[in-house]
Write a structure and sequence with these properties.
The chain has two domains: 30 residues; 94 residues. The protein is built from four helices and four strands, in the order H-H-H-H-E-E-E-E. It has a four-stranded antiparallel sheet with strand order 2-1-4-3. The chain is rod-shaped and about 90 Å long. The termini are far apart.
């Protein structure tokens, strides 16, 4: 009976030790993405999605509904803004409704856009609430 208890106790201790070792390896090996890099990548992703879904073309044509829908799908801690600048320097600014001012870190991404024979510049901005 002592051998059975000793074996069971040893197997339990070994299982716990292996679990702790595996969790330590997973935790140490997992990459940590800096907040600024995450925010920059999120801005780039929004720009890609907006262009792919036609939201940029719609914005140029005066309809910001699709772009606002994309902005509403962002994580709650992130605010997004798009500044559309035409050849004459006129700006159209679309900001997520609940975001009015920059609170923390700001990341921006400038991209050119060509639509109906005209050139535009779009500044995608993202920041944390």
């Amino acid at each position: 009976m002592k051998a059975f208890v000793f074996t069971t106790d040893a197997l339990l201790a070994l299982t716990v030790a292996l679990l702790v070792a595996m969790l330590t390896i997973v935790y140490v090996a997992s990459p940590v993405i800096p907040r600024s890099l995450y925010l920059h990548q999120l801005s780039a992703d929004v720009a890609t999605v907006a262009e792919a879904q036609g939201a940029v073309a719609d914005l140029i044509d005066g309809d910001d509904t699709a772009l606002r829908t994309i902005f509403r799908s962002m994580p709650p801690s992130v605010c997004m803004q798009a500044r559309l600048i035409d050849d004459m320097g006129n700006e159209t600014i679309i900001t997520e409704a609940s975001c009015t001012t920059y609170q923390r870190e700001l990341q921006s991404l400038w991209l050119p856009y060509h639509h109906n024979g005209e050139n535009y510049l779009i500044r995608w901005e993202g920041w944390y609430r």
